[in-house]
Amino acid sequence: MLLLRLLLLLLLLLLSARLLLRVRPIGVGSTAAAAAAAAAAADSGDAAGAAAGAAATAAAGAAATAAGTGAAAAAAAAEGAVRAAAGAAGGETPGPAAARIAGAAAARAAAAGAARAGAAAAGAAAAAGAARAAGAARAAGAAAAGAAAARVAGAAAVAAARAAGAAAAGAAAARVPEAAAAGAAEAAGAGAARAEAAAAGAAAAAARAAGGGATRAEAAGAAAGAAGAAAAGAAAAGAAAAAAAMPRLASVADRPLLAVRPRPVVLLLLLLLLLLLPLLLLLLLLLHLIILLLLRI
Fold first, then answer.
1. What domain range includes position 292?
2. Domain count, the chain
3. Handedness of CA 166, 170, 171, 172 (dihedral sign)
4. The whole model's pTM is what?
5. Domain C-terminal end among 188, 206, 236
6. Is there a domain that residue 242 lies in?
7. Does residue 52 sit in the same domain as residue 184?
8. pLDDT tens-digit profile of 229-262?
9. What is the pLDDT of residues 19-44, one digit of tens each?
């Protein structure tokens, strides 16, 4: 029973070690994919920020250029109208007209400068916003990469712990045969001690039986002597009866052999003996097995 339990324990330990070795760490592939996706998102965020900054700068420059061009065209048209009116009047350009032309030129230059300054400020603001967005995206990507690295480290720690558990299970499985051998040795020693005790008991019983047998043999000898005396008397009586029955025996001897038939009682006894012989053999075999089991126990 002890050996059977030890073998079952060994089988369970081997199965658990095999299952532990087959299990893969959870979350390693998913965390690596998440880290790669976060890095790709950060790169795409940087590219999108750069593209948005370039587009905002180009749009602001184009708007400022268009505004400056429109202001210059309006100023030129106003100057042409003033000169045409002066030419139609037939005189030279008066002083107030020249002052107005100079003011229009100055206003045009100021408007162009203001438009360019506004365009530059808008481009700088757009570039700063794009840079901030790119920095935020990079920070998010770095945080995601750190979390993925932490998950990978945790999965590696779990895998190491499982490997250590599998090694411990293997060591325990390696120790189980030693315990089984020790249990077998103990069981063998206990069986030997029981066998010795049974042999001693059997020897004592045999000695007692031998002593009782000697006493019985003496009594049987006395009874045999008495029986011998009775047999001698019976022999004498038998001789007398035989002498008296000689004529009858002679007549029986003259008959054929088939004429002498056994009695039905004898036939019944022989039939019962033949029927009970297998049962007696089975009983003897069962008794032998019981004796062997008792000797083993």
1. 265-297
2. 2
3. positive
4. 0.31
5. 188
6. no
7. yes
8. 776 777 677 777 767 766 665 555 555 544 456 5
9. 555 544 444 455 556 666 666 766 67
